[in-house]
Amino acid sequence: MIRIGAVLCCVALAGCNAVSSEGPLAGAINSDAGQSGAELGRQNAAVFDIIDIDSRSARLVSDYVSSTLSRRFGIGGGVGPVVIGVGDALKVTIFEAGSDGLFSTSQSKQVSLDIVVQPDGKAAIPYAGSVRFAGKTLDEARKGILAALASKAVEPDVIVTSMGTPSRTVTVSGAVGKPSMVSLDLTKEKITEVIAKAGGPSTQPYETYVTLVRGSRTGTVLLKSIIEHPSEDIYVQPGDQIFLVRDPRTFTLLGSVRGDGRIEFGANDLNLLEAVALGHGAIDDSSNAKGFFLFRYEEPDIVKSLLGPARFQGLLRKGMAPDAKGRYPIVYRFDMSHPDSLIVGQTFPIKSRDVIYVSRHPSVDLRKFLTIVGTPLGIAAQGAATAAVLNQ
Hints:
This protein is of the alpha+beta class. The chain has helices at 2-16, 26-32, 37-40, 55-63, 68-73, 138-149, 191-197, 223-228, 272-278, 300-307, 309-318, 341-347, 362-373, 376-390, and strands at residues 49-52, 89-95, 110-116, 122-125, 129-132, 157-164, 169-174, 180-183, 208-214, 217-222, 241-246, 250-255, 261-264, 287-298, 328-334, 355-360. A hairpin with a 5-residue loop joins strand 12 and strand 13. The chain starts with a helix and ends with a helix. GO terms for molecular function: polysaccharide transmembrane transporter activity.
């Protein structure tokens, strides 16, 4: 009798392979991790590894700060001295000590001149001729005028004031209140200050991406990250282009959950438990508590820290390849059967475009097969086969 039961069990388990199902079992994901395409028999298979979500990995991922803008453009944006440019409007006020000078009378010892810097970078000043302004600071321009008037005016003094800076503009467009060419003052201004001049963002910071284009370099970062991390709020430079785009952060929930699909964050932050809850939770009688997986292209610094240098290099040799942004494919494994999972899950942050997959329990495929069989053979085998699967 025992021999017959074993045979029936084997037949039932073998038949499970013929039952169509949705998505891989946890065992298939676990066994494919760290394998090359050649080892899997699929030459172009994506190479990935699995990392368990525990207190260490959750803390490392949560504490990581992306530095897209500061890394690409340098903290502060490499801003040098602020100088006058072609087209800028200036007010030049000249003072003289005597009442019989070039610019003074008995009624006034000063004169104010409104000038515009010409395409050759110069502007005309009476008795001083063409004076170069472009490329100079206000103080350097003042000293240049003084030098030109030193032997002509009576103890002259000069004040140069900026009245307009058309040469110092930044284009701000997209999801802002007033898309426009924003003029910079003769001071250093940051991204958030320039966005404010353009009417501020028209969408929530947690779903607004900021792209800075400077020459041939481009960097994109979430506005929320710029606000929270001052190192990302870099100084802009004349000629920069800033684009704001609303792109609601979403994740995809698949597998043995009550509500799968693409889901918007709808909040400033989202952790793993909240993400699963947005899909109304896992299905009790079919989900595998040990089989919660999060698929992500992860930042290289995080991958190297979690895997270690040796493991990381080994995966590269096997064919693990980055995406267009230099991030590597990683699968995070989450075990909901442990009590502390409800604590750790609160600290693990979800990122935009994450895929969360809740695998089904192995017994699900067995139940499908036995339902299809629907014979005394299937009924007789059901108890022994189910027990065997559950004891795995």
